[in-house]
Design goal:
231 residues, alpha/beta, 8 helices, binds iron/sulfur cluster
């Protein structure tokens, strides 16, 4: 129930003028392939299993993906890649995520992002990042089962590090650099598990392959089950 309240609050937020203008303009101008779709064009709330042990953290909604469909990583190539892997790993009920009403359910996982509005060039500004940070803090507090945070890309890793510091988690010193498969144990908080982001830039070039994402999800599951280096 409290998660639903938070989701509704996120969806109604208009705190960042630049992002409000951008997300709404994208929703009016649309991409030709989606010209018959009614774009969501609002902040995108997290979704998944309230009992999740795995929190999957992205950067922000994609302009014609989640900003169109209203669900994280839904309706674009990044989402196709991610949910196929989540399905192989047993976290998703189906391998595709096309629109909000497609029946997809997550098991033991919750998908969200550090910034909830689609930013121009996928690059939120620091004040926008900071304005949105309270939402992920509140979301994590409402997901007490979380044992691991899968950070999709360096931006998400940095956001997760700030989240841990803000919520009293103690990180190793020196802080490990972001890298695919890196696990960062956190005293008093969930472990951070790093993965390259499933953007087309990475998946089309082979920087991130399906097998690599499968491997990192297996690492995350090990952390969740307490059989790997986790906090
Ligand atoms: Fe609100 Fe976050 Fe969107 Fe800014 S980025 S308008 S804080 S939901």
């Amino acid at each position: 129930m409290e998660l639903k309240v938070l989701q509704d609050e996120v969806a109604g937020c208009r705190a960042c003028g630049r992002l409000v203008e951008w997300r709404e303009r994208v929703g009016v101008e649309k991409r030709r392939a989606y010209r018959d779709d009614e774009y969501w064009a609002r902040p995108v709330p997290g979704f998944g299993d309230p009992a999740a042990r795995l929190l999957i953290l992205g950067l922000a909604p994609a302009a014609h993906g989640a900003n169109r469909t209203g669900r994280m990583f839904t309706g674009d190539r990044s989402g196709d890649f991610l949910y196929a892997a989540l399905h192989r790993a047993g976290f998703a009920s189906q391998p595709t995520s096309v629109h909000r009403g497609d029946g997809l359910q997550l098991r033991d996982a919750w998908v969200t992002a550090a910034v909830r509005c689609a930013p121009p060039d996928n690059k939120p500004l620091p004040p926008e990042r900071d304005a949105c940070a309270p939402f992920i803090r509140r979301e994590l507090a409402l997901l007490p089962g979380v044992r691991a945070i899968l950070c999709l890309g360096g931006f998400a890793y940095e956001a997760a590090v700030r989240l841990m510091r803000d919520t009293g988690g103690v990180l190793p010193h020196p802080l490990p650099k972001f890298g695919h498969g890196v696990v960062v144990p956190v005293q008093g908080g969930p472990a951070l598990v790093c993965s390259y982001h499933p953007s087309q830039q990475n998946t089309f070039t082979g920087r991130l392959t399906p097998a690599m994402l499968d491997d990192v999800l297996a690492i995350a599951r090990g952390v969740m089950d307490g059989v790997s280096a986790g906090g």
